[in-house]
Protein: Nicotinate-nucleotide--dimethylbenzimidazole phosphoribosyltransferase
Organism: Rhodococcus kronopolitis
Amino acid sequence: MTTESTGPAISARATAATFDPVAHPSAAARSAANARQLQLTKPTGSLGRLETLGSWVAGCQDRCPPQLFARPRVVVFAGDHGVARHGVSAYPAEVTAQMVANFQAGGAAVNALAAITGAGVRVVDIAVDSDTDAAVSTHKVRRSSGSIDREDALTEDETLRAIAAGRAIADEEVDSGADLLIAGEMGIGNTTPATVLIASLTDTEPVAVVGRGTGIDDAGWVRKTAAVRDAMRRVRPVVKDPVALLRVGSGADLAAMAGFLAQAALRRTPVILDGVVVTAAAMVAEELAPGARFWWVAGHRSTEPAHSLALDHLQLEPLVEMDMRLGEGSGALVALPLLQAAVATLANMSTFADAGVSTGAADADETADVDADPS
Ligand SMILES: O=C(O)c1ccc[n+]([C@@H]2O[C@H](COP(=O)([O-])O)[C@@H](O)[C@H]2O)c1
Ligand SMILES: Cc1cc2nc[nH]c2cc1C
């Protein structure tokens, strides 16, 4: 009897949450890019972090020089959270569904920012607490996730379906030609599970990491900190099991993002991470698919204290610090022009040889040689 009931569960987990080993971006293409950086018409190292960024893209694309991104895509994962009904957010849960409609109408920050960078935007309802358009709800797992301070966010089956949904979305995007992915999110209350994941995986006290989210007041912060503490107590026994951690202490949207971010790495597609919620999902994705983090760059540093902890944990240095705390993929989109600049310079600048520009170091060496050898 026991084997009959656990067998299918184990194989479902094997399918949805097992990832083949993640290959690193190409070291050869990255080295070739580093060498090319030295030949371009600029003082050595003068493009600063744009140089390391461009070489990272070359590694991800396995080509030097790299190509400008042809189809960058943002996927906004929308989901509600039961905990939002317990005074942990400055806004009512209804805003999640209302913002989904706003994304579809093109009126949100993510739409405005995507338009200036050439990125496409797709919104997916993973767990919004109302019925949404068929166009966005094909991967819906359930209506809202459980209130993690007092119950599990999801069942085992829902967790696996959410991870599988994120993986399927990444596959759909890559199969349609996406060459750069951004995960964004929208969900009133979602900084609470994000903080629970980050604090649990870094063994940090709630008071040190709970932030203001959408802008809660002091009384809201106290309620949120208590909710984070209670949820952390519930996840403690499963913190080493990423699927169980997602089931007990996250939500369907976060589980889907974890699947999406891990699958993007498996599909050798670079990703710009956004703020605290996406980076919390990224931490779990790295547990599910070790090495996935080498395919990600951190777009920005959110004002949420837990975000810095997550970035340190993943050893990622954010590209911009603009005191943003919006989500939706907005911080990643603000960073996208930096990636485009890194690729454009590496790919399109002339070399010293082609442009007939003298290289300081080589000329000095030639002079030194001539001086040293009068013959
Ligand atoms: O990305 C971030 O770092 C970030 C920081 C604070 C808030 N948010 C957004 O605000 C919502 C969650 O905030 P809250 O206060 O409802 O937990 C959700 O829709 C997120 O996209 C996002
Ligand atoms: C209006 C609004 C827009 C958002 N976008 C992402 N999170 C959000 C939260 C609110 C409240």
